[in-house]
Amino acid sequence: MPLLEVIHVSKTFGGLRALDGVNLSVERGETFGLIGPNGAGKTTLFNVISGFLQADEGQVRFHGHDLVGLRPHQICRRGVARTFQLVQPFSDMTVLDNVAAACLFGRHRIASIQGARERARHLLELVRLDAKASVPAGSLTLSERKRLEIVRALATGPDLLLLDEVMAGLTPAEGQEMGATIRHMQAEFHLTLLIIEHNVRLVTGLSHRMAVLNHGSMIAEGEPTEVVRHPEVIKAYLGERRSRGA
Amino acid sequence: MRAKWFVLPALLLVAVALALGPTREASTQAKAPDTIRIGATLAVTGPFSPEWGPPMLKFMTEWTKVVNEEGGIFLKEFNAKVPIELVIYDDESKPPKSVELYEKLNAADKVHVFLGPSTSPITMAASTVAEKLSIPMMACEANDTALFTRDLKWFAGVLELGYPWSETYFDMIGALNKRGATKYSSVTIISSDRPHTLDVGRGADDFARRAGLKVVFHEKVPFGTTDYSALIAKIKPLDPDIVFLSLWPPEMIAFVKQAEELKLKPRDLYSRFLGAGFITGVSPRLAEGVTGATYNAKKWFAGTRAEKVAKRLGVDPYDVAWLAIKYNCMEALLTALQDAGTLDRAKVMATIRAYNKAKPIKAVYGPLFFSWNVQVGDKQANGFGTQKPIVMQVQGGKLQVIWPEAAADAKYKATPRPY
Amino acid sequence: MRVWIGWALLLLVLVGLALVPMVLTRDLVTALFFTFIFLTLAANYDVLGGFLRHINLGQGAFFGLAAYATAVVLTRAPWSPKLGALAVWVAVGVAIPLTAIFAALVAYPLFQVRGPYFAVITFGLVLILQQIVLNTSRLSGGSYGVTIPARYYPSLPTAYYAGLALAIGAVLINSFIARSRLGIAFHALRDSEEAAAAIGIDPFRHKQTAMVIASVPSAAAGCIFALFMGHLYMETVLGTDVTLLPVIIAMVGGSGHVLGPVLGAVIVRGLDIGLVYAALPVPNLALYGLMLVGIGLFLPGGIVHVLTRKGR
Amino acid sequence: MTLGGVYALIAFTLSVALATTHVLNVAHGTLMVLGAALATLLTRFMGLSLPLSVLGVAGCFALMGLLFDAVFVRPILHKSRETILITSIVATFGLALAMETLLGFYWARWVDPEPSFSLSLPAPHIEVRGIVLSTQRLLIFAYAVVAIGVFHLVLKHTPVGKAARALAQDYEGALIVGVNPRAVSRAIYTLGVSFTAISGAFYVLTVPLDPYQGIWLTLVALIVVVIGGVGSLPGALLGGLLLGMIQALTVFFVGSGWSPIMFLLVLFLILVFRPQGLLGGRR
Questions:
Q1: Whose CA is closest to D263, among D281, D239, D283, D279?
Q2: Is residue D280 scored above 70 in pLDDT?
């Protein structure tokens, strides 16, 4: 049984069909990359999985149980964590408490604040933010915020981690580093990853399998190297480029 | 949170406590005090002040001077005339504030007796202070029935309850109809949802019927209603002879103006309050012929301190609608002090309670005494007075008392609405 | 060391406040009693206003509801007169849970909205209660109000100590929240509701909890206020003063800081009381208003934040 | 119903200011009362004609708007959104208290012992097939339409107006693009304060005001803003008309006592089911 199954999910905004019968399944322990041009519906799919949006039709199954109808915090407690494309740190709180909050309220629900902070400190070391533990999260750089976003999601104790463009806006060096961190995390915590990325090259290097979304529909799925050579995919990306130029 | 931030409020409070603490002192009283101190609060500012505020303050202050020019009042206990001192604070139209201030009048200003504040809500709060401290309070412009049904021992007011407010007016209408001067038969009553205006409206309903009129429409409107167009549209087809408005000044002015817009033309328009503010508010043209309530009659004032004070301040007593209430209230308190002949609070209160129909205070408008143990609805009312409004009309842009005939400056003039 | 000095001073203040009815004159005791009532409301306001940054104009609703519930039980319940002095406790025992349940229920519609909309919808709640009071005259007396029988009135010292206890309680609740996991959840929600939900914090349940916590001391304050004033008018217990003053006190002192409402109450009420003593020829309210202008402009974000240099 | 137009206008000026500068002006209603007071003073006690006194009010309050902007808005404009909101609430609440108290106190001392601001316009009625139309109401309505039109044109077609709309839509974004919030706030407050004051003058043609009604008017305006959606002109218009209409219909068909309840119910329903206001775009 796959860890996550998305079965024929559709979502419409006004007249726009953002998701059109999307099917997807992610196996335990794998890294699954989801790519597609801007506006393809990637983030909408994340929002549906994590409960921020309700699908018009279709099912989302996690560990074989239906997630539809659950609210975000409930989904988090079942073991699905996510990051936001536009990072949303708790900017007035310290970096440490950002992560401690996730330990307190996530899946493991550590009872004491002290215990949560200890665990948070340990996790911050992992992404090399331990030096910044006591500064307000609002004062971090973009790259640091992205790392905080990931480690905060990780601190909720998920089985499945949804990463929404965590490498966007980073320098190539920072991107490489981020990739290494992600790999390291996956190994240490036995995570299953679903990654949205606009940058095809980075995600190809990370993923075991990949899928391509365009105009709300899945147009290709398979081995990363195969997928990027798929004619529909090339057309989708080129088409996008052409329309941008116009 | 650092501990030092506890220090600041702490120091402030301690400083306040130290500065204000040692104001308590034992007082032993043997000889006549320098002054008789009378304490009061007044809605000088805040929402009630447009009716009660600064002009009343001026009037009260000037009145004190006039009393003292006559040497003050004679107290038998000291066998001497003692000047009076009026200590007035601004209660900002807030009941809790007046509670603080009446406590201050007692604690800091050491007043001998209390004069009531303005309006029922504030009087309601203030009267509990009088009761707790056992200080006589003479209430002025407050006639909410609830004030008098609490079995207070230290509280009396000069006004009659709100219910018979319109008695004089409907007496007049009844008399005029009998004489054939008018042929009014239908009344519409609008009352604002406040205790006083509701009482007046309820009373009007009964007194109108007693005068042989038919109440064709009676509606309670939310307090503060300013758009009456829909209501007027509803009244217009009924074409009542009399529109009786038991409303507050801004509501009243809005109604009268909108009645013109929608051409509602009652033969008589009665306003619960009439004063300079009303005439300028609706414009003299629309005010012409409007009848309404007042406590003032120049005929009554002739030769009194009120006339003297008004002359000195250069005000027409008719312009300040409720001036006579305050005046009668202050005078009643002085009379009670004089009759008691002492500043002993229990004796003063006993004197106030002893006035009755046979032995009243001679107020300008007639006998004033306080009623005790009167059944009102399911409750016993105590301590309300006898002062009741009389009827006024705007004639030639001026206010004239028209009823009762003994106090009247002019006769009722049926005036068609000017539109 | 300095911490100890702080605690010692705190103790001194508390002892001082406990001695007040024996030392100060009745008017000041009364003024302090009202200060405690408003401080309680301001501290409660800050649970939502400070910790969750929801400007709540409806704090007065809980105050007024409890005040009315107390008065209605004492005057309308047929068994009240038989209970003697116990009736007061029964009335309070009805009023406070009733208010807490009310707070839990109204949380459902109120928290549908955020930002300025929340301020308006909570103000709307007060307006609705006003209308309910005015239109249920048999129960509430309508605009005539209700009179509580004099035998239930507390003495001034009793009222004072009850007010003091409430104010201390309300401030302690805030300081407890600030240190607890609830505080962390509130803080997270105020910074980003989405992110908070994504790490497992239930936004609605926490906001509802905040509202219920904040309603209890306010309800108790309403009960004492009702008993102290003896007669309830809609405008006195559900009016603009009760609605706006706590907000202003919290904001002047510094919203979101445990000591903010305390400082705010000392300053705002200090001005109010002090101006009467100053006996100036200009109306006090005008000067009071101008001083608020000064405080607002020169100490932006509240006095605590300026003092702790955390002003944002 | 015609008063709906005035409600809409005062609501809209409040809402534009709130959306572009994050300043919540609690003294908004008090400025309206002040405008009514000045107009009353000019016509009733100085004998000016209505148009002249409206001009006078416009002039005085344009200056007042500049002053307001300089004292209450500029010094805090660079602060965070939340600080601006809190600072402005405290400061303008103080301003409202001070203004209304001074106005009430000194008006009663110097001008009229019972302060009430109201203007009258002895004008003929227009009767169309038995329906009486009041010229005063027509005038008020015409004013509201014209003023809203002027606002609309200013916002749509002048550089300052475009900048204001940009600020209202995306504050941070607009700042990055180089919009100068100071110039916008000056324009918005000069225009907004003078229109608010003139609205006061027109309002008292049918409904009198007393010095202490200002804060209440602000709250009413805020409710209208919320019904319509912050920053939305048609929203404010719809909110204002809805307010007037619900009141009129309930009074006529149900009874006066029910009109506030009906109105509040509508407010609640709108907020719960359409939290961004009837015509508000974003939450």
A1: D239
A2: no
